[in-house]
Design brief:
Helix 5 packs across helix 6 and helix 5 packs across helix 8. By secondary structure, this protein is an alpha+beta fold. A hairpin with a 2-residue loop joins strand 12 and strand 13.
């Protein structure tokens, strides 16, 4: 990874956990300890089982968060973008990353080392309290996702992911602002590439999605939502 410099005070990521707490006087000292990196598309910067190197915050880009499943198959557990936090699941507990992370496009990362994060948590109570709430919210999201996936068939899981991508990344000219391969969609849905291809082809024939140069557009969002409404 190549080092660069970003400025927290001029950052536009209002959802970034660090940015939200810049108003706290003591945070001004800690942001000077931040390190920045750029990752090329496809580059893995967090390795499952490796020692934790602090927390990462996405300044700009898109990242897939992975966990190794049965027979060594990768399972995408989360997709992240500008302002999102990475590496928090193992922080302060196992001291090793419980997941891996790879850039989906050229990405700029902010990193706060273990020592800096521990110093922040010990010296800024408001930050620590909000971090506790953040962990609780993430746990709730994770539990709800596991429950939902267990109750959905494969077609419903693929539709749910398409709607998630729309909500998370938005669209331009009715095409999703993220371009995942069929394998990546399958790894997220817990199915096979072949099943994803078959389901996308079926949805296209039904006129609820379109596919342009491998990019997916959602044409009938309400119809897609109606198909999985009982799981919401």
């Amino acid at each position: 990874m190549r080092g660069i410099t970003t400025d927290c005070t001029s950052c536009n990521n209002a959802n970034c956990f660090i940015k939200k707490h810049l108003h706290l006087e003591k945070m001004q000292d800690f942001i000077l300890e931040k390190t920045n990196y750029t990752c090329k598309k496809g580059q893995q910067f967090m390795i499952e089982g490796a020692p934790i190197q602090g927390l990462y915050f996405i300044f700009k880009g898109k990242v897939k968060v992975l966990k190794t499943g049965i027979y060594g198959r990768e399972q995408i557990v989360r997709l992240t973008t500008d302002g999102d936090t990475l590496g928090f699941r193992g922080f302060g507990t196992s001291n090793r990353y419980l997941i891996a992370a790879s850039a989906l496009e050229d990405t700029v990362l902010c990193n706060f080392s273990n020592d800096v994060m521990h110093a922040i948590l010990k010296s800024i109570p408001e930050f620590t309290y909000d971090m506790m709430l953040f962990y609780a919210e993430e746990l709730n999201k994770s539990e709800n996702r596991v429950k939902k996936i267990a109750q959905m068939n494969v077609r419903e899981r693929v539709i749910d992911i398409l709607l998630y991508l729309l909500k998370k990344f938005g669209h331009t000219n009715n095409l999703l602002n993220i371009n995942l391969s069929r394998k990546e969609i399958a790894d997220f849905a817990g199915t096979t590439d072949e099943q994803v291809t078959r389901i996308l082809s079926s949805l296209k024939k039904e006129g609820v999605i379109k596919i342009v140069n491998k990019k997916i557009g959602l044409m009938e969002v309400d119809k897609l939502k109606a198909e999985i409404i009982e799981h919401k």
